[in-house]
Design a protein that fits this description.
Layout (H helix, E strand, L loop, with lengths): L14 E3 L4 E4 L5 E3 L3 E10 L2 E7 L8 E2 L1 E4 L6 H13 L9 E12 L2 E13 L13 E8 L11 H12 L1
Parallel strand pairs: 4-9
Antiparallel strand pairs: 1-2, 2-3, 4-5, 4-7, 5-6, 5-10, 8-9
Amino acid sequence: MQDLNFCPKCGNKSLLWDGEKKWSCSHCDYVLFHNVAGAVAVIICHKDEILFTRRNQEPKKGKLDLAGGFVDPKESAEETCVRELFEEMQIKFDIAELKYLGSLPNVYEYKSIPYHTLDLFYEYVVQEKFEVELEQSEISEAIWIRTSDLILDEIAFDSQKVFLKSYITT
């Protein structure tokens, strides 16, 4: 974050990072905020199994992940769930089938920049397990895992580890 030095408004090397969420220009009073980003994670479950994906790109390449992603501008969290599940695995479903479960803060580090996120967790219950058509650039595999067999250290993101630990014990 400290690598950003030049003000996008006046061009001077006068941009200062406050260490948390904003840069300010000491020359022209320009302020740039690095706000929290919204993200969704969908727990697709069938009985005592959850559908996980394996990440095929950084960050956390090779780790297990829940389907989901960042909220786009002018998009609700539920619309993000629908879009991401279709983009990642060609799954189509009705928004009304989603159940909101809760949220947790997280940090998503990408190319040495820490993005603070608010991860919104949803549940999507299916009556039968199914095969998925993967978006190979993002996901290397999809795998159903019994909650009793889940190893939390294999999960990519801290917020998901914390949420799943609570989810599988209730």
